[in-house]
Amino acid sequence: MTEQAPYDPEPQSAETGNPDQKARPAAMTPMMAQYFEIKAVNPGFLLFYRMGDFYELFFEDAEIASAALGIVLTKRGKHLEDDIPMCGVPVHAAQDYLKKLIALGHRVAICEQMEDPAEAKKRGSKSVVKRDVVRLVTPGTLTEDDLLPARANNFLASLAMIRHGETDLALAWADISTGETWVTTVTSDSLADELARINPSELVLSAATEEALPAEVFNPIRETAHLTRIDNAAFDSEQAAKRLGEALNGFDPSILSRAARSALGALVAYAAETQKGSPVALRQPQTSGDGLMAIDAATRVSLEILATNRGEAKGALRHAIDRTVTAAGARLLARRLSAPLTDATAINARLDMVEAATANAILRARITQDLRAAPDITRALTRLALDRGGPRDLQAIGAAIMGARQLVQHLAGESELPDGLTAISDRLEQTPKELADELARALVDEPPLLARDGGFVAETYDPALDRERALATESRSVIAQLQARLSAETGIKSMKIKHNNVLGYFIEVPAAHGDKLTGDPFAGTFIHRQSLANAMRFTTAELADLEGQIARAHDAAREIESEIFTRLRDQVLAETESLRTAADALSELDVTIGLATLAAEQGYCRPLIDNSLAFAVTGGRHPVVEQTLAANNESFVVNDCDLGGDETGGQLWIVTGPNMGGKSTFLRQNALIAILAQAGSFVPADEAHIGIVDRVFSRVGASDDIAHGRSTFMVEMVETAAILNRATKRSLVILDEIGRGTATFDGLSIAWATAEALHETNCCRALFATHFHELTALSQKLDRTTNHTMKVREWDGDVVFLHEVAEGAADRSYGIQVARLAGLPEPVLDRARDVLFKLEQQQAGSPGAVLDDLPLFSHRPAPVTKKRDPVHILLDDVRPDDLTPGRAIDLIYELKKARDANRDD
């Protein structure tokens, strides 16, 4: 049954108010009063108000949703003499609409009918159906697979500030769909970088914290995540301690700082509020920060680690190296790339596992095949814990357990395994096999999505259920027999017994036979129910009794199935910890096998990782560019790089060469090699020795920040300042074209001073690409500085980029040749050559004084047509396959004559 629309068809006489406010008109229908009451306690949310088979939206919510979803906005009924804007979405398709709204940053309150409309009518004809908000859907609290990215985490983050003398900041974040939780302390300087690493979908904070943060700190945060402001009381550290102890299975909050307790407590409180009483299954929080390579926000963008500068997955490092076959494995790989380790022992333990898997192709193939069938345990567990799971989630967990047991057998068959793989095998072996067997017996092969749909329990699993099902099946057979008997008794062969949700079971005959059933001798037997244009519908006492039996059998079967589902769900949730342990082991195994597959497929090598200041890469390649070229049947040019230093610091390479010569690729590939190595991956090189890098900095490329009024040069200087203020002796810095955004001498001065600071103050390992050839003089002044250049060749007036790095300095930048490749008009190129020649000849004075002697562009002489080499002309006409021996000898003489003649000219 459905309910009347929550609007009054007559104009209201009372004063109106904003639907988001608690005050509401004095006179309104009961349903409208209910709507305003629910809306008032959920401000800032679009209210999905359940009415039968639709979620309806009204007033401003309807206008917002109509524009966002592209659905029709209707106006029906009056409220205070104004039409009521209204739109709605079908309940069965609500997920698709929710996905669109959440992607646009909206938050939605799901308001359900808490009773059957028939129950409401028993209280009186004007009684309104009880409704309540059962869930708040926000960008950071999603749990459904069809709303979430399968191969990426969806983080909800909380930022807290405690001021007691000095200001303490802390971040907590969790993936509600998997339960994974972290907390760390931060500074105002590192806050934006941490948020760039976490990349939360939603950030919760108080208005006080927002006001206290400086604009230069908060503005970047505002652009990275959807901000949700909650009451300051949620961040009370004392209340947080109590809340955490209750919500996180006895977790001891005293090990955290006040700021960390505050952030984590607010996150737990907000997550619980959005789930409206359903327990949020968060895991014991992990502390984050120590032991991880620091990568600032600008460097992440520059190196395109998880996504390209255009926000696309394809073309980024993760896409190039991801060979995982499970969603959980892909999420773990992304987290490892975002935060590589700085502990050499832990890194080498990961590399040991990858090496063992790389050497065993048969084991890799078997494990990969089994992993492909392993469902996402953690998200299925979360849905079951929140009472949003269904039979398919139970089946997925059972299948994952069986897959884990199969993987244990594969690993047990290997005689020598590194400690890491042995530990994974031990964790997988702890999975509850009895639970998997129970789930396999209980569930059909293809269960429905929702338990309320029924039909998911296998035959013979429950005798009582089988009896009720048999009764329902037998009753259907009895109905068929009844139809045949009544048809024979009445002589109406076209008689049918049908069923619908309104009338239930009924007898239908063509309209021409209706009078026969209403007259003697059938008048007392057939009871008229409904008349249609071409048919009449009846019932009988016998049919009504049989319908009751069938209904009772169906209801009984559904009730038994519901009890079975609840029992199985409770059994699964009782094994939450062991299942989570297995899920972690599966994701680690997937990442290990994926990295081993990558290494074998692409010819990557195991890097030597230690605590030295070494950085020696032989035959290094850019992992993304190499695969792009291979797809086009092109080869990548490998290059060596040695930035290793001594106790005084690392080496500084001054890299010169033309644009398009490969400087930026060379710089980036070495930074990516360091990140891959410390994430626990083999690297694209012939050999690599990496001393632990604590921070990676990349200042490559030009971009402005118009929104915040920062020019390209200002952005460049801000990022350079961050490098010079943070880089340590253990850091790796790559810089490209510092100083190019300002006047030549200003830029040269800044670049010179920056290079000196990197060498003398930061003492870090650094690659410094530049077009200021004057910087090559630093190699004579700074003992750990060397010059390197990108090799080129000139041929017939054109420049050929070899993409090879060699010792030495470039003699020029070849800018005009690159401009020619870009398609600049020939007259412009000729004029540029004239100006360049004059500038290169000047000995003193300003460039302006020299250019005063140049004729104006409009009066320049016509370009001289180049004379082609006669040798080239002869060779153009040669067809080697057509040459006879005698003709070949003649051609050699002709070529020699042409060469001699060309020399004489």
Short description:
The chain is an alpha/beta fold. It contains 31 helices and 27 strands.
Structural class: alpha/beta
Task: Examine the coordinates and then state which fold CATH places here, giving the name of the CATH topology of the largest domain.
Answer: Rossmann fold
CATH class of the largest domain: Alpha Beta
Question: In total, how many domains does the architecture comprise?
Answer: 7
Task: Describe this entry's structure for a reader.
The chain is an alpha/beta fold. It has 7 domains: 30-137, 3-Layer(aba) Sandwich (MutS, DNA mismatch repair protein, domain I); 151-290, Nucleotidyltransferase, domain 5 (2-Layer Sandwich), CATH 3.30.420; 322-421 and 575-601, MutS, DNA mismatch repair protein, Chain A, domain 3; 463-566, MutS, DNA mismatch repair protein, Chain A, domain 3 (Orthogonal Bundle); 608-813, P-loop containing nucleotide triphosphate hydrolases (Rossmann fold), CATH 3.40.50; 825-859, no CATH class; 870-904, no CATH class. It is built from 31 helices and 27 strands. Strands 13-23-24-25-21-26-27 form a 7-stranded mixed β-sheet, sandwiched between helices. Strand 16 (527-531) and strand 17 form a beta hairpin. It is elongated. Residues 1-26, 843-848 and 858-864 have low confidence and may be disordered.
Write out key terms for the chains shown:
6-stranded mixed β-sheet, alpha/beta, MutS, DNA mismatch repair protein, domain I, 31 helices, 45% helix, MutS, DNA mismatch repair protein, Chain A, domain 3
